[in-house]
Amino acid sequence: MSEEKVYQEWDYKLIPSSYGELKGVKRYYRVFYGTVHWRFSDPDNFHKACIVFVQFGSTSEFNEARKRGEIKFDYPCHILGEDFRKVTEAMQELQNRFG
User: Fold this and answer.
1) Which domain holds residue 14?
2) FRET label pair with 2: which of 9, 39, 65, 98, CA 20 to 30 Å apart?
3) What is the mean pLDDT of residues 25-41?
4) For residue range 52-79, what is the model confidence (pLDDT) as tens digits?
């Protein structure tokens, strides 16, 4: 990942996945709220966004979790049906806070 600030997290919610662990590490949905920079399609602007990442481990600080390889950028986050309500509630709470 480039050093350019693609993601600027303002706040987040860490929601445990109901699926469990991978190699002894707890699986989470990191519900990110902040800004994103669309480097190629809109390089002059940052956009407010809510994104759900897969995170293995519970490091709270975004850049630290990224450096440790806990946040997965290389595959999409599949939200399991049984977790959908918890994840969307977290998204709604963050959106209400930052609108």
Assistant:
1) 7-98
2) 98
3) 90
4) 999 999 999 999 999 999 999 888 999 9
DSSP assignment letter at 82:
G
DSSP 8-state secondary structure symbol assigned to residue 24: T
Of the pLDDT bands very low, low, confident and very high (cuts 50, 70, 90), residue 48 is very high
In a domain, 37, yes or no: yes
Determine contact, residues 59/67, Cβ cutoff 8 Å.
no
Predicted local confidence at residue 16, as pLDDT = 96
Q: What is the DSSP letter of 30?
A: E
- Note whether residue 30 is domain-resident: yes
How many separate domains does the chain show? Answer: 1
d(CA 16, CA 91): 14
Is there a domain that residue 1 lies in? no
